[in-house]
C-alpha cells in the first residue's frame, strides 16, 4: 500500500524532443531523464522523429536500459506536422503526465499544441539557441500562450528571448547545461590515425552539425592563414549536416584537402577531444554550446566567437579564448598563440576544466529542473 501511494504521488514528466540521435540537446535530455529522482518523478521520453538508425541508437539504448519508456512519433518532415501533433497527443493522453518538457524548436511547437488540452498537464518549453529567424520568433510567441515556463540555457538566451524574439519575460527561467566531467579527460584518448590525422600532427577540432549556424564556411576561409602559421596542425571537423558537401568543395578549392579532415558522425567524442590540441567553435549564433562545454571538461583550450552563452561558459577567460563575431584575424591570432605557447595552452585547459566542474555540473542542472517541476506540480495541487 505504501509503495502504491508513493507511486501515485510521483510527478509524471514527459520529455519531448525532435529526434534522439547523438546531439547536444539529445544528450541533455537523456542525462536529465536518467538523473531525475525516481522516487519523486515518473519519466517517459517522446521523439518526434522515427527511431534512429542502429549505429546512432546509443542514447535510446541508455534510456531503455534504465527502463525509461521511449516512444517515437515517426514524423520525417515538417509536412507531417499535423499528424505529429495528433500522434503525440495520443501518446501523452496514454501517459497523462503532470509536466511536458520540450527540447528544441520543433518539439516546442508540436509538444505545446499536443498537450494544450490535457487536463492537469503543464508545458515547459526549452529555448536552446538565440536563433535569428523571424518566422521562428513568430511561432514561438504563438505557442507561448500554452506554455507555463520557458527554460533558457543561458542568460544570453533569456535576454535574446525578451529583446528580439518578444517572448514573455515572466515565463523565462535560466537553467544552464550540465556535464559529467568524469567522462572526459586523458584517460579516454583516441588514436589520431582513427580519424584521419597522421601520427605526430596536432588537431584543431570542431564537433557539431555542419550547418550555417556554426560558421564553418567563414572559418574555412581563415584556414589558409591559420594552417600556414601552424604547419604541424590539421583541422578535424566531426559531424554531419546540410553544409558538408559545400564545405568539402570549399576546402578543396582553397587547397586544404590534405589539412582539413571530415570525420563524419562519431560516437567517441571524449576520445577525440582527449587527443586534440585545441577546440574551435566559429558559430554565428548559439545558446550555450554543448561542444564548448565538452571541450572545457576535456581540459582543452578553445578559440571561438562570442555567440550567445559563450562568455557565460568561459567566464574570466572569455577574452583570452573568444573574439567578436566576424573578427577573423583575432581568431587566427588567438589560435596561433595557443598552439605556440604550450604552457599557456595547458593553463587555459586546466582552468576551463575547473570551471566546467565547479559551475556546470550535471547534478546542478538536474536539481534545477527538479525544482522547476516541483514548483509547477505544486500549482497543480500535487507534491513531488
**What is the fourth-level CATH superfamily of the largest domain?**
Glycogen Phosphorylase B
| Name of the CATH first level of the largest domain | Alpha Beta
Radius of gyration (CA) equals 21 Å
CATH architecture of the largest domain: 3-Layer(aba) Sandwich
How many domains in all? 2
Mean pLDDT: 93
Q: Biggest β-sheet, characterized?
A: 7 strands, parallel
What amount of the residues lies in strands? 15-25%
- Kindly report how far apart the N and C termini lie: 18 Å
Regions with pLDDT < 50 over 5+ consecutive residues?
1-7
CATH topology of the largest domain: Rossmann fold
Helix/strand class: alpha/beta
User: Helix segment count?
Assistant: 16
- Morphology: globular
Report strand order across the widest sheet: 3-2-1-4-5-6-7
Order of helices and strands: HEHEHEHEHEHEHEEHEHEHEHEHHEHHH
- How many β-strand runs? 13
Helix content: 40-55%
What does this structure look like?
By secondary structure, this protein is an alpha/beta fold. 44% of the residues lie in helices and 16% in strands. The protein has helices at residues 2-9, 24-35, 58-65, 81-95, 105-115, 134-143, 155-163, 216-229, 244-253, 269-274, 290-297, 310-314, 318-321, 328-340, 342-359, 362-379, and strands at residues 11-17, 41-47, 70-72, 99-103, 122-127, 149-152, 172-174, 202-207, 233-238, 260-264, 278-281, 302-305, 322-323.
Amino acid at each position: 500500500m505504501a509503495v502504491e501511494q508513493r507511486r501515485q504521488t510521483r510527478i509524471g514528466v514527459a520529455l519531448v524532443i525532435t529526434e534522439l540521435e547523438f546531439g547536444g540537446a539529445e544528450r541533455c535530455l537523456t542525462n536529465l531523464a536518467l538523473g531525475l529522482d525516481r522516487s519523486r518523478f515518473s519519466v517517459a521520453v517522446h521523439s518526434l522523429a522515427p527511431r534512429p538508425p542502429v549505429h546512432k541508437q546509443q542514447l535510446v539504448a541508455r534510456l531503455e536500459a534504465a527502463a525509461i519508456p521511449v516512444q517515437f512519433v515517426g514524423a520525417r518532415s515538417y509536412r507531417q506536422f499535423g499528424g505529429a501533433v495528433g500522434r503525440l497527443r495520443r501518446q501523452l493522453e496514454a501517459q497523462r503526465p503532470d509536466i511536458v518538457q520540450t527540447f528544441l524548436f520543433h518539439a516546442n511547437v508540436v509538444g505545446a499544441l499536443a498537450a494544450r488540452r490535457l487536463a492537469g498537464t503543464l508545458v515547459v518549453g526549452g529555448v536552446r539557441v538565440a536563433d535569428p529567424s523571424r518566422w521562428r520568433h513568430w511561432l514561438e510567441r504563438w505557442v507561448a500562450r500554452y506554455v507555463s515556463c520557458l527554460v533558457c540555457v543561458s542568460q544570453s538566451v533569456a535576454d535574446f528571448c525578451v529583446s528580439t524574439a518578444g517572448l514573455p519575460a515572466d515565463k523565462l527561467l535560466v537553467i544552464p547545461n550540465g556535464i559529467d566531467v568524469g567522462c572526459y579527460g586523458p584517460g579516454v584518448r583516441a588514436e589520431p590515425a582513427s580519424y584521419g590525422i597522421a601520427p605526430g600532427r596536432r588537431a584543431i577540432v570542431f564537433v557539431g552539425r555542419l550547418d550555417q549556424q556554426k560558421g564553418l564556411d567563414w572559418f574555412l576561409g581563415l584556414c589558409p592563414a591559420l594552417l600556414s602559421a601552424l604547419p604541424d596542425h590539421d583541422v578535424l571537423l566531426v559531424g554531419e549536416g546540410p553544409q558538408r558537401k559545400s564545405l568539402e568543395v570549399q576546402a578543396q578549392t582553397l587547397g586544404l584537402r590534405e589539412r582539413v579532415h571530415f570525420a563524419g558522425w562519431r560516437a567517441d567524442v571524449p576520445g577525440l577531444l582527449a587527443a586534440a590540441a585545441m577546440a574551435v567553435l566559429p558559430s554565428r549564433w548559439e545558446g550555450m554550446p554543448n561542444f564548448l562545454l565538452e571541450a572545457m571538461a576535456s581540459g582543452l583550450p578553445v578559440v571561438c566567437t562570442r555567440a550567445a552563452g559563450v562568455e557565460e561558459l568561459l567566464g574570466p577567460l572569455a577574452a583570452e579564448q573568444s573574439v567578436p563575431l566576424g573578427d577573423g584575424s583575432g581568431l587566427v591570432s588567438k589560435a596561433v598563440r595557443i598552439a605556440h605557447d604550450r604552457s599557456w595552452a595547458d593553463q587555459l585547459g586546466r582552468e576551463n576544466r575547473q570551471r566546467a566542474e565547479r559551475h556546470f555540473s550535471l547534478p546542478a542542472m538536474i536539481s534545477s529542473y527538479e525544482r522547476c517541476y516541483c514548483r509547477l506540480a505544486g500549482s497543480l495541487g500535487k507534491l513531488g
